[in-house]
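Q: My labmate handed me this sequence with no annotations at all. I'd like to see what the chain might look like in three dimensions before we decide whether it's worth expressing. Could you predict it?
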Amino acid sequence: MVTIPLVALLLAQAPALRQETLHGRQAYVLDNGRIRVAALRGGGHLAEIRFVSPDARRSINPMRVPHYPTIEPYLYDPAKHDALYGDGSHRWLSSGYMGHLLCFPAFGPPSSEEEVRNQLGNHGEAPIVEWKLSKVDRGASHATIRYGAELTKTHYRVERTVRLDAGASVIEVEEWVENLLPFDRPINWVQHATFGAPFAEPGKNFLDVSATRGEVGQGRPGRNSLAPGTTITWPEGTSRDNLRVSLRPFQPAPHTGTYYALLLDPARAESWFTMYHADYPVLIGYLFPTADNPWIGDWQENQNNEGKPWDGKAVARGLEFGTTPMPEGLKRSVERGTMFGVPTYRWIGARQRLKTTFTIFLAEIPAGFAGVADVRRQAGRISVVERGSGRILETAVAVQ
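A: Here is what I predict for the chain of 400 residues:
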């Protein structure tokens, strides 16, 4: 077994914290000289997670930045913006969609036309409201922001802390959701980490994940790159031509899309997924508690959606982990109840405040990297084990 050290931590820089404009949007930025992360005020999205480097290939931002201009979604004006973003239930989210978003309290479309008339769109209220900065904690060894939002239509509060340590290539996130009403309710609580071009390129972008089995969604008739409704034994599925196919690569068929849900390995206390592009020396990965997130979905968009503002131009791959397998909306997930015997939604109690965590990390990969067999968190390091060779990439969690 070979260990590949990535970067020595001898010259760890004290993390900086500042507010910037990113792609025309207001952002809270953490930067330790090694990596940087940007959280958007509009929707709370994590829009940039990248190495800091003069090498453009190393400093690539894996996260999706739309090909069209975005706005702060909480400033949406139908008279002005429907012409740009369409008039469907996705328009509020599309207007501000960038990178990693929180789907809450619903995952998927609204349950009724009444909800749409009240400006409740796809993936719930959390990703379209204003997230305000509430606390900053900065020292020589770390920087942390705390930001959150009031969901005035659905009567929840959401909140996050994002921490970056000196010398680390790891971001630690804590997240809370709070029920502001005096009765129990069902929720969908899903993290939607979306990767975009050029990092997400059909045929060259690869996923590895601690999954077991799954199922392909129905998708758009005739435009699904996989056979709709078929079962999956990770990492293999069935192509639309009824051939066995590896699901690790972004499916290459042009003008197609797909979505499939996977059950994460219940034997693991902590689940993981990683993603990389064969032509870039960068791998991004996530670690998260399996008990909070039994499901993960792989959404692929390869110039398939011709509606506004997508216009048949979008190329993206989203990994969606959380309480719910299919993006079918809160009502349908409750009606479904279970999939493979595992619940497809979660309850939140009266006035209850729930917490989860997840870790995002970056690692440099060598040319010809074969993919990831396992990810382990050990004593201040995250170890990434290469498929086949057993080589280990070590990523620093913090200065020891």
